Amino acid sequence: MSKTVDRHQDLRLAGPELEYRGIDSISGPLVVIRGVRDVGFAERVEVTGPDGAVRQGRVLSVSEEAAIIEVFQGTSGLSQPGSRVRFTGRPFEFMVSAAEVLGRIFGGLGQPLDGGPAPFRGEPRNINGYPINPVARAYPRDFIQTGISAIDGMNTLVRGQKLPIFSGSGLPHNRLAAQIVRQARLPGEQEGFAIVFGAMGVRHDEAEEFRRSFEESGVLKNVVMFLNLADDSTVERLITPRIALTVAEYLAFEEGMHVLVILTDMTNYCEALREVATSKGEVPSRKGYPGYLYSDLASIYERAGRLTGRPGSVTQIPILTMPDDDITHPIPDLTGYITEGQIVLERTLAQKDVYPPINVLPSLSRLMSDGIGEKRTREDHRNLSSQLYAAYARARQVQRLAAIVGAEELSPTDKRYLTFARAFEQRFLAQEEDEDRTIADTLDLGWELVMLLPPQELTRVREEEVEKYGRSHGKTADTGNKEQPAAP
Amino acid sequence: MVSGPVVRARPANGFSMNEMVEVGPEKLVGEVIGLDSELATIQVFEDTTGLRPGTPVRGQGLPLFVELGPGLVGEIFDGIQRPLKELRQQWGDFIHRGNIGTALDRERLWPFTPLVETGSQVTPGQKLGRIPESRGVDHFLLVPPGIRGTLRRIAASGEYTIEEVVAEVETEDGGLLPLQLYHRWPVRKLRPAGRRLLPAEPLITGQRVIDTFFPLAKGGTAAIPGGFGTGKTITQHQLSKWADADIIVYIGCGERGNEMTGVLVDFPRLLDPKSGHPLIERTILIANTSDMPVAAREASIYTGITIAEYYRDMGYDVALMADSTSRWAEALREISGRLEEMPAEEGFPAYLASRLAAFYERGGQVTTLGGERGSVTLIGAVSPPGGDFSEPVTMHTKRFVQCFWALDKELASARYFPAINYLQSYSAYGQRVAGWWGERVGGEWNSLRMEAMEVLQEDARLQNIVKLLGEEALPDDQRRIIESARLIKEDFLQQSAFDPVDTYAGPDKQYLLLGVIMHFIRRLRDIVEARIPLYQAMDLEVVAELHRAKFTWKGDDPQPFSELRTRIDQAMDAILRRQAEPDHTAIIGEEKL
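Predict the joint structure of the above. Result:
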């Protein structure tokens, strides 16, 4: 049933290799050549300037008169008469074989940066990939323990999910991502895993931090890095995540590995897309981004998941910085519509020195309800997390109210909520960067916190659960209630 | 010229507007969307990588069509009706491009029973034969629209493939029209029906906030707008699971692949509460996931609605869910942008409103050509950017739908589901379906829901004060409203899609549950009027029972509800009596915990 990708499909895209001398016009990252023949849409191009340097490019639109090409390494140094353009007759491809990519570092277009050779043994794969047939997908259900309470307890990650981190400039998203990479595992399982890291426009030190973190946790030999750094070409960023995902799909679906893909920073990617769209003179939609931003992002994010009858999986954690911390900005907004939830970092929590500063209220894991519960995490997980959500939402309202009327004026119940909010932020959300909590620890801690509330406020958990987990694991809070059980 | 999904070609044999074309040696499917003196503009429904100038484009002589016949139910198709299960057999786990043949299985044998004898006079829309398509659905061979005459031949009972001619009609002009079990129909052309009826029968969805507060009628139109993460898809899934329609057409338009997979996993296991058969046996899925080509997204809506109309013509109640219409509108925008059309609001083409209107107008309850009743109910999810309902797609959709179920980010972030905001939502069918509820379920239905709605509105007004001063600042008669509203919200409106009992509430349960909650609320008034502190009533054991009621009883038996009502009366009377006897005065002023 599940045969491998039919190679002939790719060959049909192929056309002849052609070379032209001279360019008709250059504008921003785009060059136009007139009078070309037999050039295919989206095929890969090599542009050689008078300096002899070869630049990679791609056909953006083609007609009988002219072809428009986007050049990834920038057009500076190209001249109209002195340049040569070679049409390769093939789409953008990357050679993949496990032996040649694992433990390696490549540039944003897949060129080796670690001094090693370019992969040549594998098979060339179209970096745009192909849509996964929904019939072939397996519904993701396997709980991944990240050791981070705010994620495991309340926004559970499952294998094959795409769960982005919505952050802001200066917030510790990189530290969080690195911690997830170090700690993420399926409880009680040690299968082949790999990490694919795609960086778009990140600073040198950020990339170096990630590399060091991989090295320290001893996973470097299972990591493939694709680095487009802040001073690299912007247009190249359009290719980087696609190469990264091509490698991830290969490792997952051909080699049977569980692959975790980190893509950072998607905001830089979207800006590169806008830059190209504007140079082409396209009609912009919101905030100058092209109307197809949704489809384009989807072509990246949808390349995650599991396939029935194949062992591996692709789990994606894209990171984006929300411009001005605005979650309604088109980039986080469209991302949130495509991905299976989001982890939202909040500046006010970071200012209170809470690490990781995850605001659980706007955060969400859409696949959580299928990945938790009896036999997966624990039977009380769903109700407990729902109770924590309801309580923290109410507690935030109380915090606002307390800011107006003063904490003294609050009702005794509301005061309990204030206590709860503090404990929740300082003990449940906050943890050390090397603190790896088991799911049982996280849930017990959650119970301890909800037991700070008066019993009649616990409307979302069952009485039996309060009895079994709350009273036994939770410390006896001084609820002043006569129903306190006597200590056994 | 090739630019993304838009191709301009010099027609070889003269194309017509909306004609289906095949592009290149791989026969990529496309549609003519513009013609000028020299060039035809074509939107290609598949990836155009590698297409080059000079590639031949062949017209098919037909507008974009779907195949209608047995074999649709239980299947999953892409936006241009390619069967995805078959695609997987041929190509493996990933979708490639190119034509792979037909939507419906040509080999499969279908049992056919004639319903009309040779020699009879037949009229348009008349049922000629029955084909059991699934355990729940009988498929009918109909006389095509506009055809009347004498039935010259009809096949005997037996098994036939869809291509075999099973009937021949001699038309009035003397021609002989052969009929197969399937035919083709252009997706952009609406299927004719008889008279349109005013929808008056509710489409029961088993979701309390919808059925009781903002009901939808069979043949009605509804929109579910909401920012990301507010539960549009869960709501759509709940509706497609529990709506009491005969056929469900579910269009995943530009959404996640895993969602379609979820439906494919769940629906064969879940049973339709009405027929007892697996839900998949009444469901047709159209999937254009967000990573599939964008032009086919535009087509997927039409593919779905044409199939829905086809089953309506057999006299069925069909419910169509489109998730999400915003993605369809964005596909329009993308194509429009590639055509360099002048944009209107936010880059959307000026014809956005008329396209939306035309889509929602294809819903409705009608008498079919064959004289039966059928309906197409349309439920469209809308994904407004930034959750802002003033954006063009939401705004225009609002003009054309009768039900508006606004999803609320704040409710969703407190995990209050379904996150339908009861103040912003509305339904124009409330009064129209009241007759049905009054007759079938209970006479007080309309007054109960109005009473509950009043409490909620009063509560919303008070909440503004509470935000500033805290609940403590309110006198007991106002806190009574807050507590009452909380009961309605938590014990009636909130409904868990994951709880086996709570996930579906039939009309009887909804009526009984609201009845008992409103009874408690009325008795609460007595308590406050007798100047008894509110907490005495709110701490009663019966309140906990009210909380549990929705998870406990299915509503097929009214007994537990009336017993609970009696216990409420007993408990309340006891409090009132204690107040009357000075010996047992409650300690006034003691803080409720």
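The mean pLDDT of chain B is 91.
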